[in-house]
Amino acid sequence: MTRIDLLPWREERRKRRTQEFQMVLVIVALLAVGVVYLIHQHFNGLIADQEARNNFLREEIRKVEQKIKEIERLEALREQVTARIRVIDELQSRRWQMVRVFDELVRTITDGVRLTNIKQNGDVLTLEGLAQSNQAVSAYMSRLERSQWLTSPELRIIQVQRTDPFAPFQFSLTVKLGNPEAQKEEERGAAGQSGASAAQMGASP
């Protein structure tokens, strides 16, 4: 009976299977490395795109901030110009007002009263003068009370002095500057607003 030794064949088959297994492992490892590389590249691309968006947003935000600063500068400049215009308008109105005030001072002066000094502090005038009697001062204040440009007269001082025997009383009083023209404008504006509100209420169902 013939005996066949199968050991070399089995050993060869084992080596061949080991090589095939190693090749499969290498292929799987290469595929894994390739997949990891592709994923890495994909995420790098996403990160790069996000960085580009972030840079774009930063640039746009910087431009907007510059525009906001420019707008704030223009607003401040506009407020300065508006304040200057307001001051100029106020000075012009006060110049016109003072003309009317001095005219009113001449109109309201009474017999037996002589003004010696006029001081202004804001909208308050201090009138100092001499009078022949207390009644002359009272008559002068009554005439001031009827004035629309010189309002709220208030007597501060009245005393006897000896420098002028024809006007032995020295007095000091204050009046507030009025502006009836501005008051009329405000009344007309208020009347116009009331009329518009009434018209809206009448038009509403």
Write up what this structure looks like.
With 205 residues, this protein is of the alpha+beta class. It has a domain of 96 residues: General secretion pathway protein M, EpsM (Gyrase A, domain 2). Helices cover 67% and strands 18% of the residues. It is built from 3 helices and 4 strands. The protein has a 4-stranded antiparallel sheet. The longest helix has 102 residues. It is rod-shaped. The model has no long low-confidence stretch (mean pLDDT 82).
SSE layout and pairings?
Layout: H1 7-108, E1 113-121, E2 124-131, H2 134-145, E3 150-160, E4 169-177, H3 180-203
Antiparallel strand pairs: 1-2, 2-4, 3-4
State the gist of this model.
This protein is an alpha+beta fold and 205 residues long.
Overall 3D shape: rod-shaped
**Assigned CATH superfamily of the domain at 92-187:** General secretion pathway protein M, EpsM
**CATH topology-level fold name of the domain at 92-187:** Gyrase A, domain 2
Distance between the termini: 125 Å
Helix proportion range:
55-70%
Order of helices and strands: HEEHEEH
Number of helical elements: 3
Class inferred from helices and paired strands: alpha+beta
Please count the beta strands (DSSP E, at least 2 residues each).
4
CATH class of the domain at 92-187: Alpha Beta
**CATH architecture call of the domain at 92-187:** 2-Layer Sandwich
> Which regions have little confidence, pLDDT < 50, spanning 5+ residues?
none
Percent range for β-strand residues:
15-25%
Quick check: average pLDDT? 82
Rg from alpha-carbon coordinates: 50 Å
